[in-house]
């Protein structure tokens, strides 16, 4: 694998500098922190503000969803590392309009700790900040509270943003966001490690021709490592696990997302989607909507995940609400 | 490198089946050919119809730009292989509204031959079809007519579609499309080969840690193969070649596109953009607009290209015109 960067220690600053120049219609840097990206197209009416964050290296995840009627700010850490509390706090000061803010991030210990500290700093100034950590990776734990957040981040974030855009208060936004969180189930497969910018080396070793179902976004161990199989068999295995660990059953309406982890061609992602569609149709599970593409990556990791969202009328409507950001427009 | 597919001979059919299911709001298969994707949101008023095409393996290129006020159809060949004349002809029958059609493709011998034959078959039925082949790869020849088409396809296609959407006749659409073609200049760098689905192997050998500036979308030879350098130095070298082989000079207004070839992280693409921005600012060349992302890939090739478009008021307006397709919305 190869990367096209300068000093590996400068990747986040240089990326953010490039990003804010390209998308200057949508975003700006906070004047207080070069790790806080703020929407320039934020609603003028007071609303619950939506703040996303986490480590860099998942692009377009986090910063790509800051814009109109989606996230109001994103807080970006180093590669695969939570942002520190200070920028989390600064992001609140940048966007709060008196209705409170909601932090949204994947459920990783570092993010929980640092965003919690940011929320405490904001509370000291009388600003209420709630947090929802996304927990969609069904293999990471049998206990919901211990699950990691992976591609389902997008689903939970979008639900929260749409609820905020409807003018709901912070309690109601949190309640709807948690509903999306509990109804979103993901499982991925990796064929390679990402390349770490600082070392130029793989984060972990993986033989060519191997795969690991259940691997996390940062290379967290999955179910077992074995020889790569044809796409249809891989999808069948993923769906078996997903349906076993979710309440989704015949007659349910779902949103399906295929998320590419960075280096898996779109061609392969649509081939994977085709099989998901076949299997769910056989099982009488209804696909109301589908998304395919690189929504939350692990830089140049080869792999993908399948996310199933159990829809009801409320979630369907929130997920379909219009928004306009560099990486999500509808 | 690894791919997640079934039989390598079935990748195009399976991908198109998945694609048309996911994006059924935008596209359908032609009833006459499973290699012709037709817009379901085509303008109802008679217009010049825009038909894109070429080999598969460049996704989202070609099919991803079929939708509203962009392409009306796409004709898809096998991987890295032109479609045959029959589907080219069928696409015309599907979309013509009496104002004629424009075929748009990269300048490769197979595409020229097969689309020309499709146009002759249409002419036999009294339908006028013109063709513009994109020629933006400045290193591929010093002679404009012999240049290959790479990421600049997007620029030329968008210009044509916007001109058709304004209701211009076929002659005027062709004239504006050729103007975009002559004002678009690209040069890329590759760090690896793509993996061919049928063999599961690289199309050509490349040592890890090497790069080749000027390599084509299918691995056509570039300027020289040498050790990978830091991103800023690579961009400086690309811009030196690009500016030497284009008329762009101080005071000119440009559109800049960084196109990822498939497996280069967005992080790296924005780091590359940052340097392009710095260098053009130093040289007094104005960036009016910029695009960064995977617009025309070579499946899982690691690499990127820089495209500079010399703008005038007419091109700026056409490139900014609104459109709505799965992979290009504005």
Automatic annotation (TrEMBL), chains A, B:
<comment type="subunit">
    <text>Homodimer. The dihydroxyacetone kinase complex is composed of a homodimer of DhaM, a homodimer of DhaK and the subunit DhaL.</text>
</comment>
<dbReference type="GO" id="GO:0004371">
    <property type="term" value="F:glycerone kinase activity"/>
</dbReference>
<keyword id="KW-0418">Kinase</keyword>
<dbReference type="InterPro" id="IPR004006">
    <property type="entry name" value="DhaK_dom"/>
</dbReference>
<dbReference type="GO" id="GO:0005829">
    <property type="term" value="C:cytosol"/>
</dbReference>
<dbReference type="InterPro" id="IPR050861">
    <property type="entry name" value="Dihydroxyacetone_Kinase"/>
</dbReference>
<feature type="domain" description="DhaK">
    <location>
        <begin position="7"/>
        <end position="328"/>
    </location>
</feature>
<dbReference type="Pfam" id="PF02733">
    <property type="entry name" value="Dak1"/>
</dbReference>
<dbReference type="GO" id="GO:0047324">
    <property type="term" value="F:phosphoenolpyruvate-glycerone phosphotransferase activity"/>
</dbReference>
<dbReference type="GO" id="GO:0019563">
    <property type="term" value="P:glycerol catabolic process"/>
</dbReference>
<keyword id="KW-0319">Glycerol metabolism</keyword>
<keyword id="KW-0808">Transferase</keyword>
<comment type="pathway">
    <text>Polyol metabolism; glycerol degradation.</text>
</comment>
<protein>
    <recommendedName>
        <fullName>phosphoenolpyruvate--glycerone phosphotransferase</fullName>
        <ecNumber>2.7.1.121</ecNumber>
    </recommendedName>
</protein>
């Amino acid at each position: 694998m190869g990367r096209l960067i300068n000093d590996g220690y400068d990747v986040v600053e240089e990326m953010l500098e490039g990003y804010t120049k390209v998308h200057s219609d949508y975003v700006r840097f906070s004047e207080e922190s070069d790790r806080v990206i703020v929407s320039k197209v934020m609603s003028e009416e007071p609303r619950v503000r939506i703040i996303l964050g986490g480590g860099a290296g998942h692009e377009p995840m986090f910063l790509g969803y800051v814009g109109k009627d989606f996230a109001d700010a994103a807080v970006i850490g180093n590669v695969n590392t939570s942002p520190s509390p200070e920028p989390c706090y600064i992001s609140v000061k940048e966007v709060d309009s008196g209705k409170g803010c909601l932090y949204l991030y994947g459920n990783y210990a570092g993010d929980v700790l640092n965003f919690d500290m940011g929320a405490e700093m904001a509370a000291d100034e009388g600003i209420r900040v709630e947090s929802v950590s996304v927990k969609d990776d069904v293999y990471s734990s049998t206990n919901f509270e211990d699950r990691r957040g992976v591609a389902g981040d997008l689903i939970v974030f979008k639900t929260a943003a749409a609820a905020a855009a409807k003018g709901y208060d912070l309690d109601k936004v949190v309640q709807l966001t948690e509903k999306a969180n509990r109804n979103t189930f993901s499982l991925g497969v990796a064929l390679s490690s990402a390349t770490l910018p600082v070392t130029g080396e793989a984060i972990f070793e993986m033989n060519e021709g191997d795969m690991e179902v259940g691997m996390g976004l940062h290379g967290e161990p999955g179910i077992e490592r074995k020889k790569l199989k044809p796409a249809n068999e891989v999808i069948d295995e993923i769906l078996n696990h997903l349906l076993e660990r979710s309440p989704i059953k015949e007659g349910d309406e779902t949103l399906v997302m295929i998320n590419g982890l960075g280096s898996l061609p779109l061609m392969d992602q649509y081939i994977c989607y085709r099989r998901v569609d076949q299997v769910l149709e056989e099982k009488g599970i209804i696909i109301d909507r589908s998304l395919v593409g690189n929504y939350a990556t692990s830089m140049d990791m080869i792999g993908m995940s399948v996310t199933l969202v159990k829809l009801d009328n409320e979630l369907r409507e929130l997920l379909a609400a219009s928004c306009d950001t560099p990486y999500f427009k509808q």
